[in-house]
Design a protein that fits this description.
- It is a single chain.
- This protein is α+β, with helices and mostly antiparallel strands and about 450 residues long.
- It folds into three domains: about 25-60, no CATH class; about 75-160 and about 310-454, MetI-like fold (Orthogonal Bundle), CATH 1.10.3720.10; about 175-300, no CATH class.
- Helices cover about 55% and strands about 10% of the residues.
- The protein has 14 helices and nine strands.
- It has a five-stranded antiparallel beta sheet, with no helix packed on it.
- A hairpin with a 2-residue loop joins strand 6 (about 265-270) and strand 7.
- Helix 10 (about 360-390) packs antiparallel against helix 14 and helix 13 runs antiparallel to helix 14.
- It is elongated, with a radius of gyration of 39 Å.
Amino acid sequence: MADTLKQRAPAERVPQAAATAPNPRQQAQRRNRRIAVLFTLPALLLLGALVVYPVIFSVGRSLFDASGEQFVGAANYVEIFRDPATLTAVRNTTIWVVVAPTLLTGLGLMLAVLTEKVRWATAFKLVLFLPMAVSFLAAGIIFRLAYEQNPDRGVINATAVAVHDLVEEPASYPTARARTDQGLTGGTGGPYTTTEPVRPGDSVALGFVGLAPDAVPAGSRPAATPGPGKDGIAGVAFLDFTPGGGGTQGEVDPAEKGLPGMTVEAMRDGKVVASAKTTADGSFRFEGLADGEYTVRLPASNFAQPYQGVNWLGPALVTPAIIGAYLWVWTGFAMVLIGAGLATIPRDALEAARVDGATEGQIFRKITVPLLAPVLTVVFVTLVINVLKVFDLVWIIAPGPVQEEANVLATRMWLVSFGGGNDQGLGSALSVLLLLLVVPAMVFNIRRFRRSRS
């Protein structure tokens, strides 16, 4: 019996020794964790210094006044919704969030689908993606120049003016003014009418000034007054200025040139009964007029100021104009991401739909878009995050006088804190508000990425 117990004792102690021995796998896991912490510690410290600490400091600073000495609680957050300039920034930010990501996602989807049917699809995508290589600073300068209202500087308005002038002929003499003391009456820019009634058989001389001699059309000839005829009225529109001086005001002198291309109307009882265009020597004639008194009129269309394009950077259009610049930069990004998602769609489903007689529009609406929904969502949310932080384009493109009309939360935060406001309490409150708006979109995107991995 004793021998049996002696033989069993060592056998019973073996499992206990084995249970207390360290597991090699667990040791390896612990070692890997320590190594991972060691390698990530610098990044964590940097993240804490550059992200966590500023966030905590901003939240605390937002509870104090401009000087940072007096605790005001939520007063700065209340001020956000009282200050008209800040409310304008909130309104503009809302417009950005609603309009820009929607348009970009739609444009990206449309271009991604179309480039599949283009022979030079790679080159086309490269051209559209190139603006992504341009910084917002450079893009802002480019579009600030492109949006200039002066057509001689702004390419967009230069194009608009060229198209407008093709459709509607510009006025011939925008700077010309009639000599109101020489038989004509009317304000600057016309219309001008004769002060005395005119009868068939009469001639009238319509003198104008305010026009440089070199601004007269090249085909102009020395002014001449034609004979009126018995049933007509004749006249001449001329530049009543003799180079070098001399001449008589109100009379046609030999060195004075006619003004061709002017529209002249004969009026009776307030109605236009005849119309004519001045010839190269400035002369015009109305024929076949009934006996009676008439008034000769030169319509304001002869003196209208040239079309100067659209005031893109005015208070009404500055925000849409800046959004247009943003679209130019980011359309390629949206197209490439959506195009990558489009490449993963099973072609069998598309071919089966075509075999069943579905049109391309039906395939796009009922197959392509639903299958691309996860990609479209990621692109849209990513753009929302980016739009909420937009600063460079707004700051550079918007001129000083309309800066307040174009402000978004990021630019308003800068102006309040450092751009002359010197109220870092309100500025910190705006930064916290901006953070609260960005965080939900970031969380949504992170969850999306995790779901796609699983």
